[in-house]
Amino acid sequence: MAIKKSSHPMLDYQKDSIRSKNFMEAANAVMPGGVTANIKYFDPHPLAMKEARGSKVIDMDDREYIDYVMGYGALVTGHGDERVKKAMTEYIENHGTWLFGTPHALEIEMGKRIQTHFPSMELLRYTNSGTEATLLALRMAAAYTGKHKVAKFEGHYHGGYDQMLVSVSPSMKEAGEEREPNSLPESKGIHPSHLRNTVVLPFNDLKACERILTEHRDEIGAVMIEPIQSGFIPPDLSFMKGLRQITKELNMVLIFDEVKTGYRTCLGGVQSIYGVTPDLTALGKAVGGGFPFGVVGGKRDILMQSAPSHGSDVFDASQSKNKTAQDVLFHSGTYNGHPMILAAGMAVLDILEKEMDVLLQRTNQLKQGIQEIFDRYQVNGKVIGMGSIFSVVLSPKGKIRNYRDLQKSDLATRKEIDFALLKRGIYLKPLNRYSVSTAHTEEDIRTTLTAYEEAIKEVYGGSRF
């Protein structure tokens, strides 16, 4: 087994990113912590970028990196894809505007396109983000079942709103029993009622889930799951099929949050790989081409609750005296189904339908190459994931099955490796997952593997190898 030596790649990082550091100091005067989204921050300071094309980003210090963050998975065709850009500019030229505020043709065209890949989406509604899609899905489930408690899985993230910002990354001291996790807040300002009304389940433990869900069968209306935890920890097939059966029996709406995995694992998402059909699916990120986009779709009778023709509209001053706002599930948004974003999304789907196989092959080449380096240098590392997203876990344990297994891994050394990679021009926010794009070339993969081997030698001690 490789023995880690004392290395200080973070010191090199600080020397190489002076302008990013200065930028963040200036940003602190404008935004709390210098960022407008907490996920963009990491110690001692994040890199600030000024340019990006294809698979590359360039930071404030003029250092170029091969990018594996890719907008946290959103840029499945890479930075500034000319085909996506062309689709958007042609839309403006042909239609004269970038926003109608009315129904338009692309809403149908894009919807039908998504339905070919996700046949479980009998009807769908557009939103402005994956977060909004999951939020709408929960409202639909509550309206459909009349039950307002929800269940989620420990370690799963569905957006930064109170109801789901529970037990995403809980400390092991407070998390409770593995087979019956506590509901813990992930932010200040969350009302205690959400901890009572959001039940936390253990991922990949069907018996425990069945017991907990049965206990709350009259209260829980929705079970939301990342079908692949964090985008890279896959479930057991028996767990997924069993969860589908249990939720049916208990009259609970099963929601697949495929915001990370949709159009990243394959064209049809995780549900097509596992052969499990959810009641509702939330999509976002990749299918939006790097623009704010989300969609929720599923069973017709659940979606039809939001049809304004089936009840009143909160904005309709002339609504019938015999109907109230509570007769219809309200969902609206000025930018829902934004024509420019749908034009970009259509171009992304064009590209993925042609290039998905190559994308998956390149990803597998990278994954296998990293695993071979671990094996060669006797490092207890595993490359885990499906499709074009994966992560690296340093652990002697056999299979990584859930959040708690991940917490037992060597996160400190993983962070050192990530900083050593930054020094060598490989951009990944430390401890984040990898997202590969159609813009990544075979040369990018070879360069990355060379850098990875050098990083392993630096962190574990070059002389030993």
TrEMBL record:
InterPro entries, per the entry: Aminotrans_3, PyrdxlP-dep_Trfase, PyrdxlP-dep_Trfase_major, PyrdxlP-dep_Trfase_small
| Gene3D superfamilies noted in UniProt | Aspartate Aminotransferase, domain 1 (3.90.1150.10), Type I PLP-dependent aspartate aminotransferase-like (Major domain) (3.40.640.10)
Cofactor(s) needed, names only, are:
pyridoxal 5'-phosphate
Name the segments for region: Disordered: 172-191
Question: PANTHER family given for it?
Answer: GLUTAMATE-1-SEMIALDEHYDE 2,1-AMINOMUTASE, GLUTAMATE-1-SEMIALDEHYDE 2,1-AMINOMUTASE 1, CHLOROPLASTIC-RELATED
Q: Which family does it belong to?
A: Belongs to the class-III pyridoxal-phosphate-dependent aminotransferase family.
Keywords, A to Z, come to: Aminotransferase, Pyridoxal phosphate, Transferase
The name under which this protein is listed is Aspartate aminotransferase family protein
Q: Which GO terms describe its molecular function?
A: transaminase activity
User: What organism does the UniProt record list as the source?
Assistant: Aliibacillus thermotolerans
